[in-house]
Amino acid sequence: MNRRPLAWITVLALTTLVAACAKKTPPPQPDLGSSTVTTPTQPATDVNPQPRPAVDDKKPDPLSGDIAAANDHAYKAGLLGDVYFDFDKSDLTEPSRARLARNAEFLRAHPEFQLSIEGHCDERGTNEYNLALGERRAAAAKDYMVSLGVAATRLRTISYGEERPQCTGSDESCWSLNRRAHFLITGRTNVG
Amino acid sequence: MPRALPWPAVVCAVSLLTAGIVAAQDPAATPAPPPAGAGAQQPGRDITVVLPEANQLPIIQLAFPAVPNLSSLPGPAANAGRELDRTLRSDLDRTGIFEILGPEELAVLTVSGDLERDADQYRSLGAAMLLQSEVKLEGDKVVLEGRLIDLASRQTIVGKRYRGTYDLARRIAHTFADEIVLFLTSRRGIALTSIAFVSDRDGSKEIYLMDYDGQDQRRATGHKSISMSPAWSGSGETIAYVSFFGGGPALYLADVATGRKSPLVTEGSLNASPAFSPDGRQVAFARALGANIEIFVCNRDGSGVRRLSNSPGIDTNPAWSPSGQEVAFTSSRAGTPQIYVMDVEGSNVRRVTFEGDYNDGAAWSADGTRIAYATRAERNRFDLAVLDLVTLASQKLTSGLGSNESPSFSPDGRRIAFSSTRAGSSQIFVLDARTGGTIEQLTFQGSNSAPDWSPYVK
């Protein structure tokens, strides 16, 4: 330390100089001396910061809220998604299998959820046959998710046939949207 | 649990008061009052037309003058008389047996009221028979005296007297019309039958009933869910149907007289498309075993559920043959929906439709010789077809207009009720089972589908 006092003085001087250059007009410093309490006869009053509302950047988990909100979030976030079928078919296409794999992944990550799989058809078949076909579509989706490790007891199928179309037009753009299996979180069970 | 909902009181009222009609009818087993010169009501063998249901009946030219002196009756009675007259005319017109010469056509004649002299006048217009009807009052009841007269012999061949309260005017007319048809064809008329169907006119799909001519449309369920697929029992006392009100599609029974509902089969994810056996003791239906849909049968109390069909894929929409020995159904076992018939224990399965890539909705004719069904004509359209089970030849009954589905034979096999989008939204129509002609629209309110024609009322 004592060996190079000049060097330290130089550093301080340079620092001061740089600071002076950076702020050519330094703000006036309050004169603390004039307000110094010279006779501390009274005990000091503690001054605490005003309490402020806590700011928590983490939003509440929408999947832990009510079931409707959980469904809404699961679909909007792409955790669950519908799968679509060809006319008069209940076979799973490659995109359907990929979608079902993601649905299954979500269910494995959330073992508390019970799910209803709705089978739907477009309006073109007969009502009676479509009711059977819708069940077959829902069951095909269920079977594949069970093969991916989702407990069968968590999945319930329900066919609506052509009774509850997603889209009400009479053209292929609507029909293709109505030939689907739809996934609905219906409840929770206590897990572990 | 299904709710026990009251059916429209009129159903009950009508069945009670029918007894009144029948009682009043008894004294009239012989024509009352017997017209001069009329013999006893002997079925003349030369008049009775005995033909298989599939054959064309000869058209009889029928002179049917206006009911006399209606306006001399008190207002309500006169109204009942007019409704009776109107109903009798439309009933006889719908039989397809008659060509009616009504008051307008008969206006050119100068009739005297003396049958001996008037008969030749009617015959000059080509009429072979004359229907004379009189409406009278007895206390608070209306009385119909009707005579069907053979103009060549001047003999009354059907003479009847019916009595009932004013609100039963239509029922009195139906009863007389059926009696006339029975006498002329040896087969009862269908004017007292009903049609069950599905309608969304009150917001949700419910089961409804209407008379065979579309009158008196009334709601039979109030589940405020999806209810569908009504199916009459052989006695006409019960309707099996599907409803979602408990969750998924399940089977329920509705007692027609009391309106009481009871669960039939509710276990499992899908129980659908019920069909009563003709004796009313069993119900065939479609049930899911995972992705496999099969035909099952249960007893009418829901017990004894057992499997009939056995193939991967879809087997659905069973229809019991009138003999009770066979069940028609729709199966995808050959790749596309086609109609098959099996013996009632599930054996001897044979395919009966080979044309087209989508056939469904088998309905038997009352004599078991024909099956009507819906066949897909274009991507978005079905036509009705009738299959002759002897020749396996198929004949289309509709073409080009709307989608035509869910055929159901009238119990005399002459008419078929079906749903069609030919007028826009789905509505119930009836047509001639042989020709596809004389199409009549029965519903107009909301969307209507899945008609099932009742059996003869016991």
What name is given to the CATH topology of the largest domain in chain B? Neuraminidase
Return Rg of chain B in Å: 24 Å
Helix content of chain A: 25-40%
H and E order of chain A: HHEHEHEHE
Q: Provide the number of structural domains of chain B.
A: 2
Question: Layout of SSEs?
Answer:
The complex is a heterodimer of chains A (192) and B (458).
Chain A: H1 5-22, H2 67-76, E1 83-84, H3 94-109, E2 113-120, H4 127-147, E3 155-161, H5 172-178, E4 180-188
Parallel strand pairs in A: 2-3
Antiparallel strand pairs in A: 1-4, 2-4
Helix pairs in contact in A: 3-4
Chain B: H1 9-25, E1 60-63, H2 75-94, E2 98-101, H3 103-106, H4 115-124, E3 129-138, E4 141-150, E5 155-165, H5 169-185, E6 194-199, E7 206-211, E8 218-219, E9 227-232, E10 238-243, E11 250-255, E12 261-265, E13 271-276, E14 282-289, E15 292-299, E16 306-307, E17 315-320, E18 326-331, E19 338-343, E20 350-351, E21 359-364, E22 370-378, E23 381-388, E24 394-396, E25 404-409, E26 415-420, E27 427-432, E28 440-441, E29 448-453
Helix pairs in contact in B: 2-5
